[in-house]
Amino acid sequence: MSSLKKIDAAATPIDALAFARAFPSGRQILQNLRQNSTKVQIRLKNPKKVALWAVAGAIAVAAGVVLLVHLERWRPRVILMRGAVIRSSADTRKELPIAGAEITVSDNVARVTTISGQTGYFKVKFRERVWPEETLNLNFQHPGYKPLDIKVKIGLHLPVDPHKLFIAKMKPVATRRTRVARHAVKVSDVRIRYTVNYRTEQNIGSMVKVFQIANRGGVPCNGKELCSPDRRWRASKKSVTLDAGSGNIFRNVRASCIAGPCPFTRIDSRGFEHGGRTIVASAIDWSDTATFLVEAEVFHEAIASMVRKSYPAIYGRDLHFTAPPTAEGVSIEAQLGGKLMVFPYGTDLYMKWAVCGSRKGPNHDTIYQCELKPEYKF
Questions:
Q1: The pTM is what?
Q2: Per-10-residue mean pLDDT for the chain, 378 residues long?
Q3: d(CA 271, CA 282)
Q4: In this structure, are residues 331 and 344 in contact, taking their beta carbons and an 8 Å threshold?
Q5: Is residue 8, in this structure, part of any structural domain at all?
Q6: How many domains does the chain have?
Q7: What's the domain range around 241?
């Protein structure tokens, strides 16, 4: 306290002002504390807002990253669609396949077109880019039938099942209902006739051949090329060839050792085990001379024809039947007005009393179908 100077009461105002600035009063000190507290509160509120905006921005960035990764993983697929095109009918037995139908798959930007086969089957691969949540349109067109559209929705969560079968039932173009003539000719006792060719074998005799292998037993092999199986004794080999002649084949060929030291012989059956026109019988002998016998039955090959008959399936005014791949001369026998007649089924498929068509089946057989003309009835 001794270092402090005594302040005169008559000090100038300037000195008093300086003193007041240097030594603020208690009220001023409290006022300063309040101001500083307000500034501190204001400074504390701003970081909260910044933190909130930072959190919101982080969430937006994370959502964007997830979306980008999801889109990066998604790739446009090659969509495979397959099915069949058939005729729409209240009677399922008349839902015949439609060949030559034009199928177009499109997404209003790209399109792919294919044609149905003989069985109505179609398969189409849509290779163009298809975005999520799109709709594909399958359009079916064929002369004589009404156009048909099938909508298929696709997307990230709506994949097209590659095993799904699309059945397109096309309605025939509206025509006058077929009216059976008042005095229609009756078609009855319908049968299918065709010829099948097949190969035949007829036994015409047998052939016998005897041959010998001359050899001396007990002679060491000494590294010779032809020896006994244990490579100790010298051996001899002989083969005979038999020819059955043109148009003939051997069957049931037998070869055996009939004389001599047969236990020390071996017969090679590879040349005759499957028969044929020419056969070869071989044997090996590593002892004394042995005798062999070859026997075979001779068959003559020929092509024979057989006429076969079957009955068709008749539904209403439609007739259906099939013929095997080897069938020739397909024709239809039927009673027309009480008279038996034969109608060859030519390449033009023309029939006096019916409109006919055909297609190939899955086993290479031929499927025929005919529809009666108005002047006839079953």
A1: 0.52
A2: 43 46 53 54 56 73 61 62 89 84 85 87 75 79 90 67 84 67 82 89 92 92 86 92 93 93 93 92 94 94 88 86 88 88 78 84 84 87
A3: 8
A4: yes
A5: no
A6: 4
A7: 198-303
